[in-house]
Design a protein that fits this description.
alpha/beta, Rossmann fold, 2 domains, 8-stranded mixed β-sheet, 6-stranded parallel β-sheet, 16 helices, 16 strands, globular
Length: about 400
């Protein structure tokens, strides 16, 4: 029997009982990897220390309520605290995370747990912090790039230099899209060191629900044209453009699912656009319920300025709901089938977005055809390639059924 590779996942982006949607895309991949065998998983997910708990303190209050340890889907997760000054602590964050993460990893070793490698998700501060931890523990580490770590943080001179040093020290670099790989190459990372491992979609969880049924469950109008936006309400997602575009589409209602500081601005903009009666907000929700949102909508809109691999597109398409998205990041790698939706090219503005929405409403694709576009983005080839990469980095012999080519695209 082939020995299992022992992986320590290190990331600040991991869900907990108090923040169940935080970094769920990392947990989803790890759960599938662990369930297929050949892997022993542990997670260290450092959390900034904050003295007060409760919703009154927003995201920091939820972080403070995070348990120190938790078992999620048969995977042990540790949430050590580290000091972090809001807004001004970014330069010190990797060192603080490394201090707390190393103590947690050493405690695991004292209990008899060993690791063949560390898989660090997100380049800054996570991979930068993982580099000294791996050095102290004497094991290799993988640095996984996911989107804004490359498209935003790596464009800042200080973090960029530290990211490049960490990538040079890593045993391998993973990008979740070919577009992200191209950005890393543009930063000077050798293309031969980067493996593309896209995300997949769970087509058993995300599948069509009768639209009228889903709308009744969510309290949405049965006969309206419903436009959905799913994700954090933060400036980079440009949900304001989605709202402005919806205002130009006759008989449309727009729904927002997620949390963030942009909600107040969206409410003000809605009043200015006379959209108050045609917009609705939902808090973040578990994936099982998100299936109802996607199924209730006629279209999902992604108006982001930048993305790595936007999972919401595949989730929506798997539910039979087409999407309209700007041409950013991995979007063109996902929307290769015209039935899946429309890529908006030529600029980032509400007018072009409204034109695409109107075109889709005029000629909506069949739900079966939309879903078929998502089915080929299965997890299985990605998981095989991920395990093959782990074994290679750990210096373990390859399993006989592992793929020769690691880069996985649709």
């Amino acid at each position: 029997m082939t020995a299992a590779v022992r992986v320590l996942t290190f990331t600040s982006l991991y869900p907990s009982s108090t923040r169940p949607r935080h970094g769920i895309f990392i947990e989803s991949r790890l759960r599938r990897l662990s369930s297929r065998g050949g892997l022993q998983s542990r997670v260290i997910a450092p959390v900034p220390w904050f003295p007060f708990r409760g919703d009154y303190w927003g995201e920091y209050g939820r972080m403070a309520a995070t348990p120190r340890h938790e078992r999620r889907a048969d995977i042990e997760v540790s949430y050590p605290r580290y000091p972090m000054l809001p807004r001004i602590g970014m330069p010190l964050q990797p060192s603080a995370m490394a201090w707390s993460g190393l103590r947690a990893a050493q405690a695991m070793r004292e209990r008899g747990e060993e690791f063949d490698l560390i898989d660090a998700h997100y380049l800054y501060p996570d991979a930068v912090a993982a580099a000294p931890i791996a050095r102290q523990l004497g094991c290799p580490f993988i640095a996984t790039a996911r989107g804004s770590d490359v498209n935003v943080i790596a464009q800042m001179p200080g973090p960029r230099e530290r990211i490049l040093r960490a990538l040079e020290a890593s045993a391998a670099v993973v990008a979740v899209s070919s577009a992200l790989k191209a950005s890393l190459v543009g930063m000077g990372v050798p293309a031969t060191r980067i493996t593309v491992l896209r995300n997949g979609v769970d087509t058993e969880l995300f599948q069509p629900v009768v639209r009228a049924t889903a709308r009744r469950e969510l309290g949405l109008p049965i006969d309206a044209r419903i436009i959905a936006c799913v994700g954090n309400l933060v400036p980079g997602k440009r949900t304001d453009l989605a709202l402005e575009a919806a205002a130009r589409v006759k008989d449309s209602t727009i729904i927002f699912v997620g949390r963030g500081g942009e909600r107040a601005r969206l409410e003000r903009l809605g009043r200015e656009l006379s959209m108050t009666q045609r917009m609705q907000f939902f808090d973040e929700m578990p994936q099982e319920r998100l299936c109802r949102v996607y199924s209730a909508a006629d279209v999902l809109v992604l108006a982001s300025e930048r993305e790595g691999w936007p999972n919401v597109l595949l989730e929506s398409v798997a539910c039979g709901t087409p999407v309209v998205a700007f041409n950013v990041g991995g979007v063109p790698e996902i929307l290769t089938d015209p039935a899946a939706g429309i890529i908006v090219r030529g600029g980032h503005n509400a007018g072009l977005l409204a034109e695409a929405l109107s075109a889709l409403f005029a000629h909506p694709p069949a739900r079966d055809a939309v879903r078929a576009a998502a089915v080929r983005f299965s997890w299985e080839p990605v998981l095989e390639a991920q395990l093959a990469l782990y074994r290679r980095v750990a210096g373990m012999p390859a399993a006989t059924d592992e793929p020769a080519e690691l880069a996985v695209r649709a």
